[in-house]
Amino acid sequence: MGIRFCVLGSGSTGNATVVATEEGKVLIDAGLSAKKIDQLLKERGMSASELDAILVTHEHADHIKGLGAVARKYDLPVYANEKTWEELDRQIGEIAEENRCVMKTGEMLEFGSLQVESYGISHDAAEPVGYCFYHEEEKLSVATDLGYMSSKVKEKIQDSDVLVLESNHDIEMLRMGRYPWNIKRRILSDVGHLSNEAAGIGLVDVMTAKTKRVYLAHLSRDHNLMDLARLTVNSMVEERLAPDDHRAKLMDTYHDRATEWDVLKDD
């Protein structure tokens, strides 16, 4: 079957994504409660007991809320780099020593037929990462919590079959919103979150003829709307591509429910 994946939840209230092949299954982050993760996996015909590991992008609460509980309940290995582990130790409770796995940024691991590579990103965390997944000729990239899309990030996620890309906020909605200015400044900074405009501009540089679908992810509930994100990203892409250039299909993610399974081999 190759790679299939499902975004269980995405946004400021919690993030988790499951990526699977026939021989390897991993969870990226566990920012939802253990109960919610169990429920959403069950709705998609899967149990957390089938997972081989949990991969952590960074230590913010919306990415690790259920991490300790899920890891302990199902005796799962947890992979993160050393600096992230230093922060996790203060937040997630005791993890069995054999399940505390250090994955150096840039390292490639294998879970059955699923290969996983981490890469560094710009965000206000200890050592945040994104992940690329490979199976034969297939490639899935997950890139959220980006202050900006650097040339190194673009190089890593380019030529993906499917891309999960942050489209966190509309700049004007954020500026006019209720957050204090210091929080707004953090979100708008190079270690904050990617705006709709920045997501669209960056997408032009990484999208190739191979890229089928792009999931717009990690949307702010206060400073974005799914329709607005899709419209803005599409507008940025249209302004920069020739009429006959390839365009990937834009897909939605949700803070309160899971996406359907996406099979990369499907057209």
From TrEMBL:
InterPro entries assigned:
Metallo-B-lactamas, RibonucZ/Hydroxyglut_hydro, WalJ/YycJ-like
> SMART domains recorded for this chain?
Lactamase_B
- Show the catalytic activity: 3',5'-cyclic UMP + H2O = UMP + H(+); 3',5'-cyclic CMP + H2O = CMP + H(+)
Q: Which intervals hold domain Metallo-beta-lactamase?
A: 13-218
Which top-level group of life is the source organism from?
A: Bacteria
Kindly give the PANTHER family that the UniProt entry links to this protein.
EXODEOXYRIBONUCLEASE WALJ (PTHR47619:SF1), METALLO-HYDROLASE YYCJ-RELATED (PTHR47619)
- Protein role: Counteracts the endogenous Pycsar antiviral defense system. Phosphodiesterase that enables metal-dependent hydrolysis of host cyclic nucleotide Pycsar defense signals such as cCMP and cUMP.
* Protein name, entry field: MBL fold metallo-hydrolase
* Species, as recorded: Paenibacillus ehimensis
